[in-house]
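If I may wish for something, please sit down with the protein I am sending here and say whether tokens and residues agree:
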Amino acid sequence: MFPCHRLTPPPQSRRAFLRQAGCGFGAVALAALWAQGEIGGADAVPADIDPLAPRAPHFKPRAKNVIFLYMDGGPSQVDTFDPKPRLNKEHGQPFAVKIEPTQFNNNGNTFGCPWKFQQYGQSGIPVSDLFPNVARHVDKLAVIRSMTSQFPEHTSANYFLHTGTGVQGRPSMGAWFGYGLGSECRDLPGFIVINGGLVPPGGLDNFNSGFLPASYQGSIFTADNPPVANIARQEGSDKLQRNKLALLKQLDAQVMERLGRVDAVESAIANYELAYRMQTVVPDLMEMKDETQATRRMYGFDATTKGTASFARQCLLARRLVERGVRFVELTCPSLGHDRWDQHQNLKSGHEDNARAVDQPIAALLEDLQQRGLLDETLVVWSGEFGRTPFAQGSDGRDHNPFGFSLWLAGGGVKAGTIYGQTDEFGYKAIENKAEIHDLHATMLHLLGLDHTKVTFRFSGRDMRLTDVHGHVMHELVA
């Protein structure tokens, strides 16, 4: 005779019992956390409950935080940090070496640099007239002239730069840093993207957490006040808000008891707590009442050139965020009415517009970080997704060039006043110390005390990492 389960529950397997019991114990621990007076009010919370709790690095770090100055569109290496006299000598002549397929294949003649280069500082690193303010800080920089990308078009190249792969859906490097180290700031997200007005091709997936827990994804701020919608707390709403959060906590705990540990639920709980705390700290963060007029002028708050004041606010906000312990801050380009650094035509006016917008604020950021003793522990990275061709597209533009381009690092244990790698005499292809984006990621992780081969997450049957199966630390850049 078969037993009837209509009136009595069916027998429960040992595995199901342990799963549900374990989740129930977790919910008890979670409830205890919420009962500590403030929502999530403990200063030190175990990492299995708070995914952003600080974690120890693999070895002694040189830096604690990252500020990534993302130059969306691809600045031209031969017009910024990699001078090539032969281009000007052969300007207007047919390009002397074989041309690889380009994005639009509308290729013209050799295109000389419209700006002059000068050597600056004790290091004598040459910088073009596009960056007179950053040039004053050249002895703080490590310039990489031999970076390469695997992709010649924006969306895939953006994914590659941000996530280490050229397809959608992988975790952003900011998410990986949060996963590896957590955050030293309990009241703000560990990975913040400051949107200057132009979300790059590829969209918000450049800042996503992919298969990592959702708590590590980038939070999008603006440089305006308020930076996040609905962040202001309504007067007299504190008790009502606490009651709502308590109810949500109970409902979420019940779901976890039934289904086990679910990332979406756990991340939602963490986000409720974080959003509650942000309502207190964000207004003070954005008011900037404690910043002097001299500091504001240094960054360019009163600049009249288009985009400068906007980017100045981004840079000062970035300093204030790392000052508060935010692990990874990314800045995006201000909107100038044309297509970022992506000058397929009108190279001179387009690059000058972009440089004017970012030059003074970036120089001020470097100086401010140093004056406050923060530059030694903050890694600053300036880069686009690729470079541009040394020959013209049409008559006055440059096409995409992934075969050799320039970027720079500063602070955070970087060997300052150095140049790494070399391109050929046209600035077309890397020929010495050729570097890949995987090497950049490995080096950034290394400077923050992480072995890139050990920062892994089990997904789809294998241990995934930011550098995949690639990447070498560029030790020549480490002080």
